[in-house]
Amino acid sequence: MFGFGTILYVSLLLVNAMAVLSEDRFLARIGWSSARPPNAGFQTYDQAQGQGEVGIKTKLIELISAVRTLMRIPLIILNSLVILYELVLGG
Amino acid sequence: MAHVPLRHPVPTHPVSLPDPPSTPSSPDGYQRFSSSPGPAPPQQHPQPQMYSSQHVPAYPMTSPFQHNQHNAHPPPQPHHQQQSFVPQPSFGAWGVNDATAQFGMQLGTSAVAAGQEYVQKNFGGFIPLTSVKAHFNVSNSYVINKIKLVLFPWMHKSWKRRVLRTEQGHVEYQSPRDDINSPDLYIPLMAFVTYVLISGFHSGIHARFHPRILGESASSALGVIIVDFLSIYVGCYFCSVQTSGQVLDILAYSGYKFVGVIFTILSSYLYFSGALYYVIFFYFFFANALFLLRSLRSLVLPDPALSSSPTANASAYYRSRRITFLFIEAMCQIVYMFFLVRV
């Protein structure tokens, strides 16, 4: 159905989309920032994380920030490779 | 009528069979393809002995061509001298004396050990070899009972995996040979290969076989397994389930759906009507879903007796989330199985 190349391209584009999200302009606005605000929402965080429970939202935020931190450099390399490939052999 | 007694036909022309080549009592009569020239079998050839004294110290793995060349020169001569040979014991028969043989063995052993160490250092973390071996430790009765379990899961009573405590206090599960509830990798692997073969067989029956169909089928089945594994893994991450040593178990559980898929495809050869085929398909899907729900329960809702990690909290907040995740996962199997059945 979907070829391997298609799946590769789609995943690369999705990871690019995750990496492009701006930390302070966008994520902080909608409250998805990974840096815990010290005062705002202190109590609700505390209740939810009293016994080490982390919600799905927190996990998602952690996942996004981890992907963004780790995949910066490999994404540069991968994007360059794909661009070169498309230029030379894309047709 | 005159009786002529039957006689064995006598050949009228003189037939002389050539004498069979005389077997030399020592392998020196044949060309030696040994790796190093040997010690002195008592030939009256000063030449090979000079060569042999030069070859042995430097490099025992010389090519056999040099040796064969100067052994091919005197081909008739060794035949005359067989009776004077005494066959050398064991390695001597190959033209390799004991010291060289031992050196060669040591070299080989150290090379293999170095290779293993290299692999272990670089790739040992990815594939836990002992765990893989434990998953292939199956017996015949286990295989039959497990297939029965996958196809008819309602008949099974207790789904808990048996544990055994080692001396160090670690708690680990028993191998599949001892525990019917333990997942193995043998059945999923065999089912995967059988699925690829059946897809080839299916296309052959419909006269559209091409060897690339096998590769395509294998790739798509592998893709399904990867997607399933990723969805379980990401779901476990979101629900804070520890998946440290359980990668192979997840792969094993992903592979059990092939058993149902194979039986569905086989049932399609029996010329059932369309409705009955879909009934059978849904039956196998529900059987697989039930099997997964029961089996993954131990994965996702950890038994308090076993858990040693601090995040093994069976609080209500987690339980409902995990149960929802498990249910969604079991329901996704129908998508995978539907994709696989369209072979």
TrEMBL record, chain A:
InterPro entries to which the protein is assigned, alphabetical: Yos1 (IPR013880)
Record key words, sorted: Membrane, Protein transport, Signal, Transmembrane, Transmembrane helix, Transport
Signal sequence region: 1-22
A GO CC term attached to the entry: Golgi membrane
Superkingdom of the source species: Eukaryota
Coiled coil (UniProt feature): none
Subcellular location as annotated: Membrane
GO biological processes: endoplasmic reticulum to Golgi vesicle-mediated transport; protein transport
PANTHER family with a match to the protein in the record: IMMEDIATE EARLY RESPONSE 3-INTERACTING PROTEIN 1
UniProt family annotation: Belongs to the YOS1 family.
Name this protein carries in UniProt: Yos1-like protein
Taxonomic classification: Eukaryota, Fungi, Dikarya, Basidiomycota, Agaricomycotina
Automatic annotation (TrEMBL), chain B:
Regions crossing the membrane: 185-205, 217-238, 250-269, 275-293, 323-341
Topology in membrane: Multi-pass membrane protein
Pfam families in the record: YIF1
GO biological process, one term: protein transport
Ranges of compositional bias, category Low complexity: 79-90
Compartments it resides in: Endoplasmic reticulum membrane; Golgi apparatus membrane
GO cellular component: COPII-coated ER to Golgi transport vesicle; endoplasmic reticulum membrane; endoplasmic reticulum-Golgi intermediate compartment; Golgi membrane
Coiled coil: none
Alphabetic keyword roster: Endoplasmic reticulum, Golgi apparatus, Membrane, Protein transport, Transmembrane, Transmembrane helix, Transport
Stretches for region Disordered: 1-91
Family designation: Belongs to the YIF1 family.
Function comment: Has a role in transport between endoplasmic reticulum and Golgi.
Protein name: Protein YIF1
